[in-house]
Amino acid sequence: MSGLRPVRGTHDLLPEGFRQHKYVIDTACEIAERYGFDEMMPPVFEFTHVFSRTMGQTSDVVTKEMYTFPDRSGEENITLRPEFTAGICRAFASNSLYDQVPFKVFACGPLFRYERPQKGRQRQFHQIDAEIIGVKGPQADIEVLSVGQHILEELEVAKSVTLRINSLGDAESREFYREKLVAYLEPFGEDLSEDSRQRLHHNPLRIFDSKSERDIEIITDAPLLRDHLNYDSQKFFGDVCDGLSGRGIAYTIDPGLVRGLDYYTHTAFEFVTESLGAQGTVIAGGRYDGLIEQLGGRPTPGIGWAGGVERLAMMVGNIRQRRRPVALVPIGGDACEEANIIAQKLRKAGFMVALDYSGGMKRRLARANKANAVIAILIGDDELKRGIVTIRDMENGEQHEKPLNNLANHLAQYR
Ligand code: ATP
Ligand code: MG
């Protein structure tokens, strides 16, 4: 039945999967908060130029992956956001927040890219995102990397993740390098893939990102940007690396890491794992000093990263519900109505209460177990007459009685 089929590349986040998903987001948000990042939420769609002008006319995202459509008025093109950075920078400039720098924000939510769906690659996916806008110096690069590393540690996945880092230099270094790179690549002519031939003059650096085997062969012997950095760019990169070492953050310098977007300068990085197969990049980002100006704002530096929530959730594995409910188990007809009244009182008093609609004691206890209840409160007609309930420890099965009166206070430890 095609009517019941979800759109290709979208996923239903059912309760079980959503728990992991939310765990990743909540953990990231809490850690980012410790570093002074405030949460914000840019719109899910923007005018198309917000992305096309910044991410670059030759980037895969802009040329092949954006969900773009004319707005109903027909006057403007709208794009579902394929990333956070451009939207956050647009929001920064639109709201003229120049006097609020350093502007440190955290965001999370859905993104949309028309890609070939596979493990760890969807058309609607989710990211956590951290940005520092308004800081020129390498302290911001170091901090943004530290918070990423800290989140991976808190999620207990850091051991299987490597930080790869590179410098794309400043505009001067890139211009100087670009000429050398084009001179090296031009003689290969038709040997290069069609995409790469197109990029040769618009953005030759991108060819490092090519997935074509022949391109990869050709690029292996190309001159490296790293050997063409001017003094300032070298110093900047050295300071970032020293800062990481000083904080005990391990990294590998990867001279071929260029990142797929036009707006990066200086620091570019990826946190990569071997444990997810081909889609191994879990957090990626870099410095984007020219971006806000490209959008039409005042020149303002920035740096940030985005992490794939689905990929991180896969690494985190199963999370048990952290808060454990108390289960109510009525035994007998009168007890059922009473159980509902007790449940309401406990819920008002802040307890998480599991209470089924039907079933005998055995079935209800089995479900209480499945719900990971910490205790079951057994309510029998006889006990009700005596004004007591039986508390059953779900770990060891031990039972004892408690007065019904003021029950919430007697159970305070399970709240
Ligand atoms: P890739 O090389 O995997 O396509 P990218 O360079 O396009 O990644 P970014 O734009 O830097 O990715 O996005 C940051 C992170 O978001 C990625 O490292 C990844 O974890 C996640 N991500 C990107 N695209 C997708 C997608 N289509 N599905 C799921 N996660 C994604
Ligand atoms: Mg991609």
Describe this structure in words.
This protein is α+β, with helices and mostly antiparallel strands and 415 residues long. It folds into 2 domains: 2-170 and 230-316, BirA Bifunctional Protein, domain 2 (2-Layer Sandwich); 326-414, Rossmann fold, CATH 3.40.50.800. 38% of the residues lie in helices and 21% in strands. It contains 15 helices and 16 strands. The strands form 3 sheets. It has an 8-stranded mixed beta sheet with strand order 1-5-6-11-10-9-7-8, sandwiched between helices. Strand 15 and strand 16 form a beta hairpin. Helix 5 runs parallel beside helix 9. The two termini are 45 Å apart. The model has no long low-confidence stretch (mean pLDDT 93).
Task: Give the structure's gist in a few sentences.
By secondary structure, this protein is of the alpha+beta class. It has helices spanning 15-34, 48-55, 60-65, 85-94, 138-154, 171-185, 194-202, 213-220, 231-246, 291-294, 309-316, 333-348, 361-370, 381-386, 407-410; strands at 38-39, 45-47, 68-70, 77-80, 103-112, 124-133, 161-167, 252-253, 265-273, 281-287, 302-308, 326-331, 353-354, 375-380, 388-393, 399-403.
CATH class of the largest domain reads Alpha Beta
The main β sheet shows up as:
8 strands, mixed
Mean pLDDT: 93
Q: What is the percent of helical residues?
A: 25-40%
The CATH architecture of the largest domain comes to 2-Layer Sandwich
Ends: how far apart?
45 Å
Category from helices, strands and their pairing: alpha+beta
Strand content: 15-25%
Strand order of the largest sheet: 1-5-6-11-10-9-7-8
Computed over alpha carbons, the radius of gyration is: 27 Å
Going by CATH, the homologous superfamily of the largest domain would be Bira Bifunctional Protein, Domain 2
Shape: elongated
CATH topology title of the largest domain: BirA Bifunctional Protein, domain 2
What is the domain tally?
Answer: 2
Bound molecules: adenosine-5'-triphosphate, magnesium ion
